[in-house]
Structure formats: structure tokens, C-alpha cells
Structure to design on (740 residues):
């Protein structure tokens, strides 16, 4: 079976996005999104050290060493935080630049001429992924990156499937999880190992900064759309894969960085969710607010009219023009409220005089009773 | 040492010092407000601004690119505020999204610039990793000028920034427009970050904001001193990093400065007076041994009181049972003349020991005996 390189790249992009989105859901929910940033940078050190040890850029030891560095990052952040000398965010901001700096210095001092440069690590180069292939007995098995990311996707799915209850509980109620005898610490480190492995696999394809986009933006978008964890996970994967494919096509059409386009598309996806999410989107919230504002104004108007109904001042108080003085409404606003109330059948208008209908009276009484 | 004679080194060192001073001082506010990672987001978010500024003007002049970086960095911060303000997405996710998406878009623009036939983009990617060696004399003037302006701004709004860092609600109740103050502080922070991109690069710039402040925090509890010490640490690390990297071949300046800062942080956390981990350990140990001594001395005193002959010796095993580890305290008491041996491992309290026991009980407020 022969697949064109363009299709292989799209498969790699989609699988990488899916593999990143799964652990990303828990990072977003546990408010540890920036751990992915820290880990994806500091793994450089592990990769460099393992490369010096093996002399082979394709050695599986690189993945193991990088994952270990990821866990080291998490441990150092916790250690630093536990001295109570710095806050957690500062601890993150101290640890990963230090580890990353050591990695960069080692590369520029000792690995000047080998295929290991900081650009590739930070930015990734998906376009070259199809050139690096696995073959077995002379048979071409496809790009290495696709196998690696496929394996990581399965690993992530299996881990989350196996420990779903525990992950859910430690995410939403750490105290209860501890009381029930779960070991949140062990699970935490196991999970961060998973994040590290995912970051290592993905940074090869999309670079360390854009791993963060694939891990965080799709889950954050999904978080705006749904309240249910399984649905959030499915949506995250869908948004991630769609952004990755759209990003590929954007880069193809404009002839620009694939990884950059993918990250941009995750940003677009998040922005769309930010605007249009059914209940929490900015548009939905604004419409709900506007509707509540009109409903509130109508209620005030009906109560005002009911209050003065049959009283000597009724003739004065129930004129639209008077609302300006009494309720401090701008004339335009008052006119719209009256028109809306009229078309809702709450009042009738004869000349300037406003009179409640039976329905309007009932609605005003109901509002007052509810207050 | 040719710091004074070598033109390039002097330029780089001066630039790094001005940068470290500015980012260290302004970073103090960010760290106190738990916004350490905002610097990371701002520096990444600046990238598309740099590329766009070049695309729009065709100029690679540092002031143009820095202006583009500042606008983009500022928009990135605004995006973080909007996301956290208008949705339930938390600050960490908002920062992650802004830093990675803006950076990704910046890459798209950079690769687009690269394709432009007439425009060599060389010089643009120096902002990714920072190339201190490309600093020119006029760049240093720009860094120093903008840095001085940012520091001046911090001095003018000192009281307001202090309120913002420690008690924004109180500030609002006093009638200060805290949102505007926040915007001003963020703008100054953006300025202090974008002037560093050319020297240390996007990725490591966040350390220039966090590390000097985190180190300075260990040395003082006072805001003014903290800002001053952080500025000093930033400048110190800038100069040290520039000199070290010039002395050694293939030692990039940005990472070297960051490692100097890391060293300062570690030293401060371990050895700073009062807050240093080392002093705390010493203090803890001293307190603990004092408590042990209190206990054993008190026990021996009690035994003496309840015995007809106060000079009667008591078996160490009894004292050991009353307070495990009594043996070493007894030897210590013997050395100080508070106890004496009356037989093989039998001990009695001396008059001096009784005096000391009473004094210590008094200090504990147990003078009701």
C-alpha cells in the first residue's frame, strides 16, 4: 500500500492532535496547563543527554530520557514550591528555563554539527516526517513518527480508560480521593509521565511550543461547550483533529509552517467556541443578558401600572412620557419596552394612556409574588 | 578582562545589564501578583508582532520590530484577561493558549516572510533564541531608553502599583482606578519584556522576569528593597552571563544569563538571612535540642524535688524512659555543670542545674510551682 506523503503528514497531524488532546483535558481541568509548557521545554535536556549517551538520534532511549526529564521537571517544581519560598507559578517559571538553558548550552558546545539543533526542537518539522521511515525485512511500514504517535495515542487512551474513575475523582475532589485511599501522588506522577511521553513524541513532529497548543486549546474549547467529562474528551479530540487537518491545508495553500498553521487553527477553534458556545459563549451570554434586561423592564412597567391602577394619579402615571420621570428610563428605551409589552399582550394603548390587560395584571402579580 | 576595552563585549554587557535591571524590577510586581508566567505568554505572543511589523514596513530596524512586539505582546495580555474574565477557562489555560497560538501564528508569518523574494528575513529569527552578539550600540541605547522609561513609570505609579500588588480591593475603595493601574503596569511589563527579546530570546525571556524577583524576595520583606535588589540581581546576571559567554567558545549568552540567574535563586533560597532554608534548618535543630534539654532538665529537677535527698542520684534508664534520647542531654548537662554523675550511670541535678531549670520554667510561664 502506497500513500502519498501529503496524506501521511495529515495522518501524523491528526494522530498527534488526538494523542495530545486526551491528557490535555485533565491538564486544563486540574489547572496545570502550564506544566505542559514547562515539560515540553525541559525535555530538551533529556534528549540531549540521551543523544550524547547513545550517539543515535533515533534511539528509543531518547524518549525514555526525555520522559524522565519531564518527571524531573514536575518533581523540581513541587520541591521548590514545598520550600514555601516561591509560589507555584514562579516555581514553574524558574525550573523550565534553567533546564532548557542547560540543554541549549550542551547542544551549542558539544553537538554543533549533528542533526540536533534548537530550531528543530522548538519548531518541529512535520514536512520531513515522511522521510524517516520504519522498514522490516525490506518492507516499508510507513513513517516512524506515525508509529510513535499512534503508540502514544493508544497508550494515552489505555491509561485514561484504565484509571478513568481515579483520574476523575482526583481531578474534581482531591480530598475525597485521598480519604478513599487512592494515592493521588502516585497517580499524579504516572499522569505527568504520560504527559511527558506525549510531549516528547509530539515535539518531534510539531515542536515544543506547539505541543502546548495541541494539548490546551482543544480541551479549553471543549470545556466551554460541555459540562460532561466524556463528552469533553470526545469534543477535544474532534476539535484537535479538525484543527490539525485545517492547519495542514492552510499551510499547504499558503506555503507556510505546518505546525504554526495547526497551532493557529487550534486558536481559531478556541475563538469560535469562545464566541459561539451554546451556553457559555460570549454571544449566548450577551443575548441572555439582553433578554433578561427586557424582561426585567417589562416586569417593572407592569408593576408600575398595576400600582397606580384606579388611583387618582393613574391618568398621569400611566402615560408613556411619564416613565421617563418615574422610572428614569430614556424615552427611546421606554418606547421599546412599551412596544414589546404591547405585542406580548401585557397592555393596551389608547392615545397616550397605557392600560394593563388581564394578562398584564396577572404577570405583574406573579412577579411581585416571586420577589 | 576586556570588559572595558572590547567594544562588542561592552555593548552586550551594557545591554544585558539594562535589560536585567528593568525586567528584574518590573518582574517583582508580576511575581508578587502570582503572574510569573504572564511574562512567558507576553514574550511568545510578541513573535507575530515582530513578523507583521517587518511585513508592513519592510524594515528590520530594531525600534520597528520592538514596536510590533510590544503591540502583539499587549494584545496577548488583553486576550488572557478577556478569556479569564468572560469564560470559566482558568488563567493557566488562557496563558497556555495565548502563548502557543500567538507563537504558532508568528511562525506562520515568519515562514511567509521567508518566501518573500526580496526580503531576506535574516535577523528576524534572532528574536526566537536571542543573539546578544548582534546587539549594536544603538540597540543598547534603545534598550536603556525604554528601560529607563519603564522604571520611571514604575516610580511615578509606585503607590498605585503597591496597592495593586497587595490589596487591589482596598485601592478601589480609596477611589483609585485599579483596572487602569493594572493596564499601566502590564504595559510597562510588556515594554521590559520586548526589549529583551533580541538579547535572550522568546523562550528564555520569562526567566528574566521571574528569577531576579524570586531571588530578591528571599532577602527582604519590603517592597521597595525587593524591587531594588531584583533590579540589581537582574543586572548582575546580565553582565556575568555576557562576560562568561564571551570568555568561552560556544556558550550562548541568553542561556548563560539564565543559568546565572538560576544560581542566584538557589543561593538566595538556601542562604538568605531569615528566609533561607539553611537558616531555618539550623533554627529548627536548635529549637528541637532546646526542647529536649528542657524536658530532661525538668525531669531531673522533678525527681530531685520528690526525693528526700535532693542530691540523690537517679538511674539514666529512668530518665531515658521519661524522655527517649536523654543520655546525650545528660552528658551535655554534665559539661555545662547542671548535672553530675553519682554512680555508674546515675545522675543528680546540681544547684546550678536547679537554677537553670527554674529559669527555663519561668521563661515558659510555669512559675506556679
Amino acid at each position: 500500500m502506497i500513500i502519498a506523503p501529503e496524506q501521511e503528514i495529515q495522518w501524523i497531524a491528526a494522530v498527534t492532535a488526538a494523542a495530545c488532546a486526551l491528557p490535555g483535558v485533565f491538564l486544563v481541568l486540574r489547572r496545570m496547563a502550564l506544566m505542559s509548557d514547562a515539560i515540553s521545554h525541559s525535555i530538551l535536556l533529556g534528549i540531549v543527554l540521551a543523544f550524547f549517551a547513545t550517539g543515535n538520534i533515533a534511539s528509543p532511549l531518547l524518549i525514555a530520557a526525555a520522559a524522565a526529564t519531564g518527571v524531573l521537571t514536575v518533581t523540581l517544581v513541587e520541591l521548590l514550591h514545598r520550600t514555601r519560598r516561591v509560589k507555584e507559578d514562579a516555581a514553574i517559571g524558574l525550573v523550565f528555563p534553567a533546564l532548557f538553558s542547560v540543554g541549549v548550552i550542551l547542544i551549542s558546545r558539544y553537538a554543533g554539527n549533528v542533526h540536533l539543533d534548537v530550531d528543530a526542537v522548538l519548531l518541529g518539522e512535520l514536512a520531513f516526517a515522511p522521510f524517516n521511515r520504519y522498514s522490516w525485512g525490506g518492507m516499508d511500514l510507513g513513517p516512524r513518527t506515525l508509529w510513535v504517535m499512534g503508540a502514544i495515542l493508544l497508550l494515552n487512551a489505555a491509561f485514561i480508560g484504565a484509571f478513568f474513575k481515579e483520574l476523575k475523582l482526583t481531578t474534581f475532589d482531591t480530598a475525597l480521593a485521598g480519604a478513599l485511599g487512592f494515592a493521588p501522588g502516585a497517580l499524579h506522577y504516572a499522569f505527568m509521565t504520560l504527559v511527558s511521553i506525549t510531549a516528547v513524541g509530539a515535539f518531534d513532529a510539531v515542536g515544543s511550543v506547539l505541543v502546548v497548543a495541541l494539548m490546551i486549546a482543544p480541551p479549553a474549547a471543549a470545556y466551554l461547550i460541555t459540562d460532561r467529562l466524556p463528552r469533553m474528551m470526545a469534543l477535544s479530540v474532534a476539535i484537535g483533529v479538525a484543527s490539525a487537518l485545517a492547519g495542514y491545508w492552510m499551510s499547504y495553500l499558503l506555503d507556510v509552517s505546518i505546525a504554526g498553521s495547526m497551532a493557529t487553527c487550534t486558536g481559531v477553534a478556541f475563538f469560535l467556541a469562545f464566541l459561539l458556545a451554546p451556553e457559555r459563549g460570549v454571544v449566548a451570554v450577551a443575548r441572555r443578558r439582553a433578554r433578561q434586561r427586557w424582561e426585567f423592564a417589562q416586569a417593572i412597567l407592569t408593576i408600575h401600572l398595576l400600582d397606580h391602577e384606579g388611583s387618582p394619579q393613574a391618568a398621569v402615571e400611566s402615560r408613556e412620557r411619564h416613565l421617563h420621570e418615574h422610572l428614569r428610563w430614556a424615552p427611546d428605551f421606554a418606547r421599546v419596552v412599551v412596544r414589546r409589552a404591547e405585542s406580548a399582550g401585557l397592555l393596551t394603548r389608547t392615545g397616550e394612556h397605557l392600560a394593563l390587560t388581564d394578562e398584564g395584571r396577572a404577570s405583574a402579580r406573579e412577579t411581585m409574588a416571586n420577589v | 578582562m576586556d570588559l572595558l576595552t572590547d567594544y562588542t563585549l561592552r555593548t552586550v554587557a551594557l545591554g544585558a545589564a539594562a535589560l536585567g535591571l528593568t525586567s528584574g524590577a518590573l518582574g517583582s510586581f508580576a511575581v508578587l501578583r502570582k503572574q510569573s508566567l504572564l511574562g512567558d505568554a507576553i514574550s511568545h505572543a510578541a513573535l507575530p508582532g515582530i513578523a507583521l511589523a517587518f511585513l508592513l514596513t519592510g524594515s528590520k530596524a530594531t525600534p520597528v520590530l520592538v514596536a510590533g512586539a510590544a503591540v502583539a505582546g499587549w494584545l496577548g495580555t488583553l486576550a488572557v484577561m478577556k478569556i479569564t474574565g468572560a469564560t470559566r477557562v482558568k488563567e493557566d489555560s488562557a496563558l497556555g493558549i495565548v502563548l502557543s497560538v500567538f507563537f504558532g501564528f508568528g511562525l506562520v508569518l515568519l515562514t511567509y516572510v521567508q518566501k518573500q523574494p526580496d526580503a531576506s528575513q535574516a535577523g528576524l529569527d534572532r528574536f526566537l533564541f536571542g543573539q546578544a552578539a548582534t546587539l549594536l550600540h544603538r540597540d543598547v541605547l534603545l534598550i536603556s531608553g525604554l528601560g529607563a522609561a519603564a522604571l520611571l513609570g514604575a516610580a511615578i505609579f509606585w503607590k498605585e502599583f503597591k496597592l495593586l500588588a497587595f490589596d487591589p480591593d482596598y485601592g478601589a475603595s480609596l477611589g483609585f482606578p485599579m483596572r487602569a493601574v493594572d493596564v499601566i503596569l502590564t504595559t510597562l511589563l510588556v515594554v521590559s519584556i520586548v526589549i529583551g527579546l533580541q538579547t535572550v530570546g522568546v523562550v528564555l525571556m520569562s526567566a528574566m522576569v521571574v528569577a531576579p524577583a524570586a531571588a530578591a524576595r528571599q532577602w527582604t520583606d519590603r517592597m521597595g528593597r525587593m524591587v531594588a535588589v531584583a533590579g540589581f540581581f537582574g543586572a548582575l546576571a546580565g553582565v556575568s552571563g555576557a562576560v562568561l559567554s564571551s570568555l568561552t567558545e560556544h556558550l550562548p549568552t541568553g542561556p548563560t544569563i539564565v543559568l546565572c540567574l538560576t544560581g542566584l535563586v538557589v543561593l538566595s533560597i538556601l542562604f538568605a538571612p531569615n528566609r533561607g532554608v539553611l537558616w531555618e534548618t539550623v533554627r529548627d535543630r536548635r529549637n528541637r535540642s532546646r526542647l529536649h534539654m528542657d524536658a530532661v532538665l525538668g525531669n531531673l529537677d522533678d525527681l530531685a524535688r520528690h526525693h528526700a535527698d535532693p542530691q540523690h542520684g537517679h538511674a539514666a534508664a529512668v530518665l531515658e524512659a521519661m524522655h527517649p534520647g536523654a543520655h546525650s542531654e545528660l552528658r551535655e548537662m554534665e559539661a555545662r555543670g547542671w548535672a553530675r554523675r553519682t554512680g555508674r550511670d546515675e545522675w543528680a541535678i546540681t544547684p546550678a542545674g536547679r537554677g537553670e531549670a527554674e529559669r527555663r520554667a519561668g521563661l515558659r510561664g510555669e512559675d506556679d510551682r
Observations:
- Residues 277-305 of chain B form the longest helix (29 residues).
- Chain B has 16 helices and three strands.
- The mean pLDDT of chain B is 88.
- The beta strands of chain B are 314-315, 339-343, 346-349.
